Structures are given as structure tokens and as C-alpha cells.
Here is the input.
Amino acid sequence: MTFFPMKRDDLKDFLDEKAEEFNRPAFIETDPIQVAKQFSEKGNIEIAGFLIATISWGNRAAIIKNALRLMEMLDNQPHDFVLNASQEELQNLQKFVHRTFNGHDLIYFIQSLRNIYTNHVGLERVFENGFQKNGSVYDALQYFFKVFFENDGERTRKHVPNVLKGASAKRLNMYLRWLCRNDRVGVDFGLWKGIPQSALMLPLDVHTGNVGRKLGLLHRKSNDWKAVEEITANLRKFDPDDPIKYDFALFGLGVFEKF
Here is the structure.
């Protein structure tokens, strides 16, 4: 892998420029977040966003297509569906499949979300309760995993990252970026206020990881939680208030510019 040495100030300027280039409304046109953008009610946005983030791996066109189909199966009212779907309506979800995430998994997800909204106030409260323990996203993700699997769901556990086992939690970190970060240009939602954007962690994947290594921001070879901590700490040096804006820079460089 080629390494591109840059002085710190030059690297910051480069990443700031790329973050601004990609963190704009046009980004939505090719990103799964576009499906959540069709909703305006908070409960719909956060439930749709969570489910869409869950299936956000693989071909992006396929993700968007299946995310739209999933919302149709939830009557395009995901919040109401989670709270009120009958057993028959739940069983109709057996038809859904995205790669290894199937209808059985989806039914468990809906049932778990119902438990979260009925007994834990909602997704926002669960993540924020976990965050408040030590003021870290790591604790928020750990607590969320515990609450989400209060009702067994052994087979479905592979679809929710467990940071206690070192998972990078790419999709959940992306989800938290969507819900917690206010980018002032209308890409991320910025709906949740209890987790500051300064505390967010990079949604580390093969693209952001590879670009990060080329730029000297990441030396760890595995894309695990320790790698998330390393690269996020380095990005925080450039912008401690909004370090995850650089997700757009690293992802854009990797996906759109083949850096």
C-alpha cells in the first residue's frame, strides 16, 4: 500500500477540503441515507435509519433497493409498524432478505424495537443512557447491544456488532453519525442531542480504513474497535468538535476517487 506523507497542516487542509466537497446534499443521491430522508417524523426517521444502517453492507444500489422494499413492507410507517403490527403482519416480513439478513432476523429486530419503545422509551434514550455511563460511544454501543438482546435472539446476534468482542461497529457508528451529527447542510439529521458530535467514532470500513492507512492516520492492520479508536483520535486532532466530518473525506476519496 502506497503511503502519502503530508505535513500535519497540509493533511488537515486536504481533509477539510475533501470533507466539504463530499458532505453536501448531492451525497444523498447515492447513499442509503436517502431512504431515511423520505421521513419527517422523528420516530420514523430513527427506526428507518436503524434498519437501513443494519443492512448497509455490500453493493450500494442493492442496499438502497432493499431498504426501499423494507420500508414498503413496514407500510412506510416504521414507527407505527413497530408499535402496532399484528402477528400476521410480522409473519409477512419472512419474505425479506438482504444478503445474510433474512425475514427471521427482521422479525426479531421489529420485536426488539417494540420492546425498546415500549419499555425503554426509545432508541434515543437507550443509546444516551449507555453514553452517560462514561461519556463514550463505546459504552453507548455496549449498552445498546445488551438491551437489544434482552429477549434472546441468538441467531440474530451476528447482525448487531458487539464492541466487547472488538467489533468496529461500522454501521452503528454510521447510524449515530446520521442521528447525532448536525452538518448544517442537510445530509446528517442531527436529531439527537444527548451524544455530542465531538464524541462520535468513525464508521470504519474497508474504504475509510485503506485511505486512512495511506494517509498515515491508521497503522493498525485490522479494522476492529482498536483501529476505530486510533483513527478517530487522529481525526479529532484536526477538528475536536466534529471529527467525524472526515468520514465524508475518507469515504469519498476511497469510493469516488479510488484514492
In short: The chain has a mean pLDDT of 95. Strands lie at 97-98, 101-102. The longest strand covers residues 97-98. The chain has two domains: 1-27+202-259, 31-193.
